[in-house]
Amino acid sequence: MTTHPASTSRHDHARSVREQKSDTNMRGWGNTIRLWRVCEHTACTQARACRGDVKSCWRSNFQLLPELVQCWTFCLFDARERGMTFEEAMAALDKTPMPQAYADWLAETGALYPARPEAERHKPG
Question: What global pTM score does this model have?
Answer without folding.
Answer: 0.73
